[in-house]
Write a structure and sequence with these properties.
Length: 282
């Protein structure tokens, strides 16, 4: 192209590869242009492949953002380091997972990218990002490469908690099959509480089939049964009862599920809970 010819001509006639300011570099510009030939020309003149711009981003960060696999390959061939974080703490692979680019993720991992890189103030891992994107293929790739399935962010949120909240049944199943623990990372709640609050019966069954305690309590002493009654999701009631949920566990205020139903004026729940209580005494 004409652009390539012009760049080549300037370089052959003594153009310096030193940038006139610190906000970027000629290599960053070349990468952002999307032309791998220009990138190769700049690198052939000895440009530092790991130079950073004012945001702490290397040309590899920019290469990921261009979604150009040829540019990424060229940078790696010239020694680009894959684990340099920008000022936000994000490495190139964080961006690759965010933009859902499977080939780039594979390439970066094959070149030593940190599988458990945490790229935000909240300490999210690559697996957290893939779960947020609801991308089952990416989730499976990361797990196959050794991602920590039980990693917590700074708010004690695990990939499993995210998947439950997003009601992505397939990803919940995938995480559980790959060793996700059903033990909650904090005492405030439980995965079953989360599943009940989301109202997804399939997820509830997946969790319960892993042996989750159906009568676990949150920080207020409330069981998942309390949550079901509060939410008014009548379809979930039989499932919890099937797994042995007790209707007579009081919370820290002394309230049982039937008290919650009465306060709500939910006659259907009151009737069902009264029937269950009578059965328990037969």
């Amino acid at each position: 192209s004409k652009e390539v010819e012009i760049v080549d001509c300037l370089l052959k006639n003594g153009a310096s590869i030193l940038y006139s300011c610190e906000s970027s570099s000629y290599l960053h510009d070349a990468v952002n242009s999307g032309d791998v030939t220009i990138v190769e020309l700049i690198l052939s003149k000895g440009h530092d492949v790991n130079s950073v711009d004012s945001a702490g981003r290397t040309s590899l960060h920019c290469g990921v953002k261009t979604r150009n696999i040829d540019i990424l390959s060229a940078l790696l061939k010239h020694g680009a380091r894959v684990n340099i974080p920008d000022e936000m703490g994000k490495m190139p692979i964080n961006f690759a997972v965010e933009i859902k680019h499977m080939k780039m993720v594979h390439l970066l991992l094959d070149n030593g990218a940190d599988m458990n890189a945490r790229g935000t103030y909240y300490g999210e891992t690559l697996l957290h990002i893939a779960v947020k994107n609801k991308q089952i293929e990416m989730v499976q790739i990361l797990l196959d490469k050794g991602a920590d399935v039980n990693a917590c962010d700074t708010n004690k949120v695990t990939p499993l908690k995210l998947a439950i909240q997003l009601q992505t049944v397939e990803i919940v199943d995938c995480l559980l099959k790959n060793g996700a623990s059903i033990l909650y990372p904090c005492e405030k709640s439980s995965y079953l509480h989360d599943a009940v609050n989301c109202g997804d019966l399939k997820i509830i069954k997946l969790i319960m089939n892993k042996g989750h305690n159906v009568n676990c309590v949150d920080s207020d002493g409330r069981t998942p049964f309390h949550s079901v009654v509060k939410k008014g999701n009548i379809d979930i009631l039989p499932a919890l009862l099937k797994y042995g949920a007790s209707v007579n566990v009081p919370d820290k205020m002394g309230k049982m599920p039937i008290h919650v139903a009465v306060e709500k004026g939910d006659d259907i729940y009151v009737k069902k809970l009264e029937e269950k209580e009578i059965q328990n005494h037969l």
